């Protein structure tokens, strides 16, 4: 028997090494092996100085035991906060019982139960579920099921200006960002209309019988927390019925109770033909996403044995621990009344932000949102800043010019231990998507921090930001 040569173990870091990495090494590996360009922005905002050691509830805890209030909420991925004890317990028990994860050969009790729960929380006959592991994957599944049900003669897809549906190639074709679309070759049978413009949609449907699908976020996240009135969704439903166009509602960010209803479209009392969830479906501990379709649509697309695997589960679709994590999350959502809490705390936060807008009209341009999905838009100060400060600001990165939200986000973290999120397409909007476990004391702490920061005035804020860069 030939002896196989011994394979030497490469110089691998262990799990304990990973946990113990210091900031210089984290920075070095990030720059050399992950994303040097992104590091540039992290440095600009001062986020590169923080090493998170733990996270619990509404807070991250850094290397200096500093508690950072999380109003970013992973762009809506943390409905249950960080490391919810019930989620942890369910996962630990699942591991201790040595449950199986990959279930492609057998029926999975976990995937079946999660699908049943999703059908239970979804209105109308949104009953058929595909499980995946990212919002993009769920949205790909949503667009594909609709395309197959609409048929080859109705292959045109309508989407909205300022939309964000993910970065995989199919949904990138429905994502309205020149930056993200780059020069990739995308699906060409698409039509872009202004968000919330029912006349544009009616005209498109009437003019082009090849349109078979319309894809819309119910609340635009990346576009800057933009909603459409209830009447828009009701008219959209009627138009889709009239023209037999399938409506795909992207609820990846605004679903799971964030808007104050399980799905944001429920505010309008209408039901889409297909929808998608991700982010908080993973309960902050797992990568879980779902497409949920009307049963007749699903059956038309994949209902027969010879069509069943056209878009069947991928390797990690319905993986065990992620499924039970999502099941526990859904139960917590209702047991702890988090959807109602989102509506109540969201209304409270909005009211307090409106008061701040009255106090600082030269700084805050608009506040808007539903539930705990709130946008705070600042005035463009690039032209109003005193002449002396303009050259200082102009040497900063292009992305931050005229964008007060970058300065405010950086200073909220540095001076007030508070984290907020930015918005892809509108750099003047801060996105507030705290966990749905947020209580009024957290809202008060956040608004007090913002009030104190805005009290420095635009010039003070810019000067303090610039000073933080030279340190
Ligand atoms: C509305 C919406 N759809 C789809 C996606 C894509 O999700 P993922 O990043 O998990 O692929 C996102 C992510 O931000 C989103 O906000």
TrEMBL record:
Q: Which GO terms describe its biological process?
A: L-arginine biosynthetic process
InterPro entries in alphabetical order: Aminotrans_3 (IPR005814), Aminotrans_3_PPA_site (IPR049704), Class-III_PLP-dep_AT (IPR050103), PyrdxlP-dep_Trfase (IPR015424), PyrdxlP-dep_Trfase_major (IPR015421), PyrdxlP-dep_Trfase_small (IPR015422)
**The keyword Lyase appears for this protein:** no
Q: Which Gene3D superfamilies would you find in this protein's record?
A: Aspartate Aminotransferase, domain 1, Type I PLP-dependent aspartate aminotransferase-like (Major domain)
UniProt keyword list: Amino-acid biosynthesis, Aminotransferase, Arginine biosynthesis, Pyridoxal phosphate, Transferase
- Which residue ranges run through the membrane? none
The record's comment on protein family reads: Belongs to the class-III pyridoxal-phosphate-dependent aminotransferase family.
This chain belongs to which protein, by name? Aspartate aminotransferase family protein
Q: Which organism is it from?
A: Hoeflea prorocentri
The lineage, from the top, is:
Bacteria, Pseudomonadati, Pseudomonadota, Alphaproteobacteria, Hyphomicrobiales
């Amino acid at each position: 028997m030939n002896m196989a040569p011994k394979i030497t173990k490469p110089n691998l870091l262990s799990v304990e090494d990973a946990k113990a990495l210091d900031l210089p090494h984290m920075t070095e590996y990030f720059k050399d092996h992950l994303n040097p360009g992104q590091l540039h922005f992290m440095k600009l905002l001062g986020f590169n100085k923080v090493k998170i050691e733990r996270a619990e509830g509404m807070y991250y805890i850094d290397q200096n035991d500093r508690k950072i209030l999380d109003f970013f909420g992973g762009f809506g991925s943390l409905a249950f906060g960080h490391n919810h004890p019930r989620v942890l317990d369910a996962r630990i028990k699942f591991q201790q019982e040595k449950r199986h994860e990959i279930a492609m050969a057998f029926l999975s009790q976990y995937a079946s139960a999660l699908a049943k729960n999703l059908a239970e929380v979804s209105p109308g006959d949104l009953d058929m579920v595909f499980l995946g592991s990212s919002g993009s994957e769920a949205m790909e599944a949503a667009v594909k099921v609709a395309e197959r049900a609409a048929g080859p003669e109705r292959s045109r897809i309508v989407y909205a200006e300022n939309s964000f549906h993910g970065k995989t190639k199919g949904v990138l074709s429905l994502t309205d960002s020149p930056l993200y679309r780059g020069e990739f070759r995308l699906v060409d049978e698409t039509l872009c209309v202004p968000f919330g413009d029912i006349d544009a949609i009616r005209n498109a449907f009437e003019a082009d019988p090849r349109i078979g699908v319309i894809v819309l976020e119910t609340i635009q996240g990346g576009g800057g927390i933009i909603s459409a009135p209830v009447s828009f969704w009701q008219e959209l439903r009627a138009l889709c019925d009239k023209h037999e166009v399938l409506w795909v509602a992207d609820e990846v960010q605004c679903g799971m109770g964030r808007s104050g209803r399980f799905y944001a479209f429920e505010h309008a009392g209408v039901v889409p033909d297909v929808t998608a969830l991700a982010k908080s479906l993973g309960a902050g501990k797992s990568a879980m996403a779902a497409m949920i379709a009307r049963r007749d649509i699903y059956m038309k697309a994949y209902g027969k044995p010879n069509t069943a695997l056209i878009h069947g589960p991928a390797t990690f679709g319905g993986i065990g621990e992620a499924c039970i994590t999502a099941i526990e999350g859904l139960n917590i959502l209702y047991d702890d009344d988090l959807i109602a809490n989102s509506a109540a705390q969201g209304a409270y936060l909005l009211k307090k932000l409106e008061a701040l807008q009255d106090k600082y009209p030269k700084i805050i341009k608009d506040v808007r949102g539903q539930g705990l999905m709130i946008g705070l838009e600042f005035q463009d100060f690039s032209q109003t800043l005193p002449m002396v400060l303009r050259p200082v600001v102009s040497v900063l990165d292009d992305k931050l010019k005229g964008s007060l939200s970058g300065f405010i986000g950086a200073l909220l973290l540095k001076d007030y231990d508070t984290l907020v999120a930015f918005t892809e397409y509108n750099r003047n909007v801060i996105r507030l998507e705290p966990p749905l476990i947020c209580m009024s004391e957290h809202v008060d702490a956040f608004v007090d921090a913002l009030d104190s920061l805005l009290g420095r005035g635009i010039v003070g804020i810019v000067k303090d930001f610039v000073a933080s860069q030279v340190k």
